[in-house]
Amino acid sequence: MTSVVLHLNPSTEIRLSRVPKFLVPLWKELMAMSQEKLAIISVSDKTGICELASGLHDAGLILVASGGTASCLREHGLPVKDVSEITHFSEMLGGRVKTLHPAIHAGILARDTEQDRQQMEAHHFKFVDVVVCNLYPFKATIANANCTLESAVENIDIGGVTLLRAAAKNHARVSVLCNPSDYDRVLSQVCTSFCSIRAHQKEIYDMRYLLRVFPE
After folding, report:
1. What is the pTM of this model?
2. Considering the domain boundaries, does residue 26 fall inside one?
3. Which CATH number goes with the domain that contains 159?
4. 5-9, 56-60, 115-119, range with the lowest pLDDT
5. Is there a domain that residue 163 lies in?
6. 160 lies in a domain?
7. What is the mean pLDDT of residues 37-58?
8. Where does the record place the MGS-like domain (predicted)?
9. What is the domain count for the chain?
């Protein structure tokens, strides 16, 4: 027999005494399920994003988005939190700094370990389960004959690249989508079970894929 404490959120816990040891993994799984699941959405190409976000919302994820992405989702009647509601820090420098914050990147990079969970709870950070992100159209921008240096510089994506790299590094726990052509396939699975997103991940995000996307 052992004693197990279920932390349902930073302010609530349930203590279960004299639980058989063989049930401990089940309680840990229930604890993980009790946590809010966040989907961070930050896209330049908004093709199909509202349909995907609707499916993620129906699957029980809390939608979190920044700037134009959040506005787009709200225009389609979807409940969405601004990134600033998670970071408790307003966008700054004309939008150059939005998602570059420990509350976002700890949520993405945190592993499913007791030590990481304790640190997340200590800072009242939430786990991010899904990252949907595509980047500023830098190539298309500089291909325009009228492109200015200022326009080219502003289309160098920093936050989006960082989101994708963080999610790719922690792909064992976090699902990452960057191509709208994958949305329909994931939607057909997520409507059945949120867990099937990870099954999709295992099909396409192996080490060879990661090396191809991030060669350096």
Report:
1. 0.72
2. no
3. 3.40.50.1380
4. 5-9
5. yes
6. yes
7. 91
8. 31-178
9. 1
